[in-house]
């Protein structure tokens, strides 16, 4: 999944008449991606989507930091901690966002008492007033070590949800375990409202679609429709008035 050229498959049930997604059917990979959006720092989201495309004032706030002279910043506080904040370890390895937004932190241990750690070399240890200069590695706990075993020894424990199941994703990105009852209930509720023509559509989700889903999740209650169903172009009515005017001129 770390190959940037690979894609995730999403099966959609759409109404061809209204060009609207009813729901999607996906596996672990896509659900893990959607859930991981909740862990992205705001600064990373703005950088990924471009400040100019953000609604509200947050884009201007981001650009303010970009344009601010380093002279005004507190020592040891560069712009990177705001503009390129470090995301969770799982997000950093995501196929879809594969972000350049995260800054790799280095950690330094007090070389005298070995009781304090900092991210800025030569910081004075508050315990013994010595410089903290010994670089150490930060070890991220594995999911298997930090979670209770489910008894499925052969199942991968990366990400957030189990890979044994299929998941339903509604147009507004509500995620639930897929079941025949839930899908039939949703279909019946949908077709009662209007004349529909249900069709299945399989789409590939890559980096471009992942970013589009991120933006749509912030802007719209119909994220899947916005990303995967192009709006139908409205046909312009014939401009008959021009012809009528010409005829009137001829009569004159």
From TrEMBL:
InterPro entries named in the record: DUF674
Chain intervals for the UniProt region annotation (Disordered): 228-252
Biased composition (Acidic residues): 243-252
Protein name: Uncharacterized protein
Lineage: Eukaryota, Viridiplantae, Streptophyta, Embryophyta, Tracheophyta
